[in-house]
Amino acid sequence: MIKENVLKIRGNIPGNVTLVAAVKYASSEQILELVKAGVLDLGFNTYHQLKSTKPLLPGNVKIHFIGHLQTNKARKALECGISLVQSVDSYKLAGKIDSVCSELGINQGILLQVKTDESKSYGIILGEVENIALKIEKNLSNVKIMGLMTIPPIADPEEARKYFSLTKNLFDSLSKKLGRKMEYLSMGMSDDYKAAIEEGANMVRIGRALFQ
Questions:
Q1: What is the pLDDT of residue 154?
Q2: What pLDDT is recorded for position 8?
Q3: At 181, which CATH number?
Q4: Are the CB atoms for 122 and 115 separated by under 8 Å?
Q5: Over the stretch 112-167, which tens digit does the pLDDT of each residue have?
Q6: pLDDT for residue 122
Q7: Cα–chain-centroid distance for residue 141?
């Protein structure tokens, strides 16, 4: 069933859009089945699951951290080898990642999590994204802002569009401020990924639709 779901979703997304499987509720067996079906970008919400699953994964899998990353878990998570931390929601967290990277001798790609849902605890409010991005770019040499991520307050595709559009506009203006085109705009999940892509997403994080 997972293989069929992967094929169906791949058929719905353009070739330039990266499918990240959100594996929060998946078993190790399901995750390995996903990999067998050709999904090589896996998104983890917790260090605990990442730690237990990492030894089972082949070397060509890219790991994305998509959940809230506590500063006291940053070192352990980064030691697992993360392709992209998608949920950087403060300068403090970026600074912690930078200092850990300095000690480990690595560079880390990050996405800034834009807070489009006022009820959520995590994310950078729209008015602060540019300031924090420029501060990171100026002061932290071991992290690189690769793009933006957001979770809209509502899963209804049509209602979510305005939040996707808002984030895409921010992505474009921030790229100009940084003087380089950022690579990833991570928006859209199982219910609204088609709308997110239409509004400019080139990375989607899909969980339930892969497993149901």
A1: 86
A2: 97
A3: 3.20.20.10
A4: yes
A5: 999 999 898 999 999 999 999 999 999 999 999 999 999 999 878 999 999 999 99
A6: 94
A7: 21
Dig out the tokens for 75 from the structure.
């070192």
Q: How far apart are CA 112 and CA 8, in angstroms?
A: 29
Which residues span the domain enclosing 99?
2-211
Query: For the chain, what is the domain count?
Result: 1
Q: Which residue(s) pair with 129 in the sheet?
A: none
pTM greater than 0.85 (yes/no): yes
d(CA 80, CA 207): 21
Q: Which residues contact 14 (CB under 8 A, 6 or more apart)?
A: 197
Residue 46 corresponds to which amino acid? T
- The span from the CA of 167 to the CA of 150, in Å, is 7
The label of the residue with tokens 């089945």 reads: 33
30 CB burial (10 A radius; 0-12, 13-18, 19+): middle
Contact 111, 97 (CB under 8 A): no
When the pLDDT of each residue in the chain is averaged and rounded to a whole number, the result is 97
Residue 27 has pLDDT above 80, yes or no: yes
Q: How many residues does the chain have?
A: 212
